[in-house]
């Protein structure tokens, strides 16, 4: 895709996102101007609508999708009174799709824009990503650490394919450990002396 086409798609996405609004009951939350408008920390590029945000928590990564004006959409446990992220969803099979300021989701953790599957999957058009994202806000969704976590969720919105590389890594580590246990058991089973 050429730079002119990419610029045109980006401009269309920005125009579409400026009109995007989300509703909950009789309340209406307009995305326009709802963020802090501050520049990202030095050395970090400003996220663009539809970018995936990887948030580095202790022991796992939480994922969100950038909408605009320093705001993201992400999964959280239905009972969370603050935007802690998805780790508490591990103990539940449900999560709520939240629209939040990025700063409120971070809780002091570091983050980066990470569209790492762009080389594997073609991202959907930005206006389609934003529309799909808008339709999910405030919905309760099934949550599964293995088959439906926050990384699956945002990849599904950006690429139309729910994927989690964290889960793939965990499966690889667990499989490797299980293979090790089997081999050690096999080795000691064969070398056992009979008296």
From TrEMBL:
Domain LRAT: 52-166
GO molecular function, one term: N-acyltransferase activity
TM annotation in the entry: 168-189
GO cellular component: cytoplasm
InterPro entries xrefs: H-rev107_PLA/AT, LRAT_dom
Gene3D superfamilies in the record: endopeptidase domain like (from Nostoc punctiforme) (3.90.1720.10)
UniProt keyword Methyltransferase present: no
Swiss-Prot/TrEMBL keywords: Hydrolase, Lipid metabolism, Membrane, Transferase, Transmembrane, Transmembrane helix
An example Gene Ontology biological process: N-acylphosphatidylethanolamine metabolic process
Family: Belongs to the H-rev107 family.
Protein name as catalogued: Phospholipase A and acyltransferase 5
Organism field: Ursus maritimus
Gene (UniProt): PLAAT5
């Amino acid at each position: 895709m050429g730079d002119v086409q990419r610029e045109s798609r980006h401009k269309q996405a920005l125009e579409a996102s400026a009109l995007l609004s989300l509703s909950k009951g009789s309340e209406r939350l307009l995305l326009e101007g709802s963020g802090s408008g501050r520049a990202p920390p030095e050395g970090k590029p400003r996220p663009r609508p539809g970018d995936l945000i990887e948030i580095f928590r202790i022991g796992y990564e939480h994922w969100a999708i950038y909408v605009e004006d320093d705001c993201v959409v992400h999964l959280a446990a239905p009972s969370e009174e603050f935007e802690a992220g998805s780790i508490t969803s591990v103990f539940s099979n449900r999560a709520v799709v939240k629209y939040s300021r990025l700063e409120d989701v971070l809780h002091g953790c570091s983050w980066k824009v990470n569209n790492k599957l762009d080389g594997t999957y073609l991202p959907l058009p930005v206006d389609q990503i934003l529309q799909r994202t808008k339709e999910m806000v405030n919905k309760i969704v099934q949550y599964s650490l293995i088959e439906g976590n926050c990384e699956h969720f945002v990849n599904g919105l950006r690429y139309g394919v729910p994927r989690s590389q964290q889960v793939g890594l965990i499966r690889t580590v667990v499989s490797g450990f299980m293979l090790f246990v089997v081999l050690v058991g096999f080795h000691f089973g064969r070398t056992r002396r009979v008296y």
